[in-house]
Amino acid sequence: MMRSNAYTLTRSTPHAIIDSTKLQGVWQSIARLRAHDPTFRQVVLTDLYLGYQEARELAVVLAGNRYVTRLDLSCNKIGPSGVQCLAPALASMKMLFDLDLSDNELGDQGTFELVSQLKGHFCLHRLNLSRNFIGSAGARALSDMIAQDSPLDTFIASNNRIGGDGALALAEALAKNEHLCSLDLSKNEIDSPAAAAFAAAVGNRGKHSLVILDLSDNRIDDGGALMLVEATAINPWFSYLNLGGNRIGREGFENIAAWLDQNKEVCLVLELGRG
């Protein structure tokens, strides 16, 4: 357990693999949080095998914090039970701007627990949930938050299992959101029907549009890729589209090249490699 005077980690994972300098950093961080240090704005506790018990105790010292703007708990083992304990505390951190919970085995249930608390958080602008085994159910929960036009401007959910149905829900939510600027859904088994939905959302968003979209390493074919290029290229606010590592064949590349050749005024950074 982490205590006020002698902080230790109780997980069964061998502590020998955790660098002593990192452990010292944990102790110092907890002490500063307990003391409500107003200068402690960025909390980084990564790759420490923090699990359910540690999440419970961390929630106690984070609850109601008015100073922390960035919290990085990536590469731990928090899981759905741990995030259920943490989520209310995170929601109470009114100055929290940047939250990284990537690589924490949250799954759909953990994602639901997190989103149910973070809905309506007026300060959170950046959220990273990469590598969390999020499937279509978790994606639908996330889409509810995005559809409410949350203040998020950067959302990263790469390396999950969102799939076509989950991506469709996110695309529909994106069409209702006027704040999101950067979206990374790479490596999520997203197919061309979902790509078409994203194309429709991006093409109809007006001035407050998405400017960066990463759909690399998915299952988008020639037709889906062309629809995305056309939709993003004609949006004057859009700047970067990554479709590398998809199922784009020679004909798809040729069609995209021909379209761009006919629309030379387009200003777009487009990545199509690794296909």
Automatic annotation (TrEMBL):
The keyword Repeat applies. Keywords: GTPase activation, Leucine-rich repeat, Repeat. One of its GO terms (cellular component) is perinuclear region of cytoplasm. PANTHER family: RAN GTPASE-ACTIVATING PROTEIN 1 (PTHR24113). SMART domains: LRR_RI. It comes from Chitinimonas arctica. This is Leucine-rich repeat domain-containing protein. One of its GO terms (molecular function) is GTPase activator activity. GO terms for biological process: nucleocytoplasmic transport.
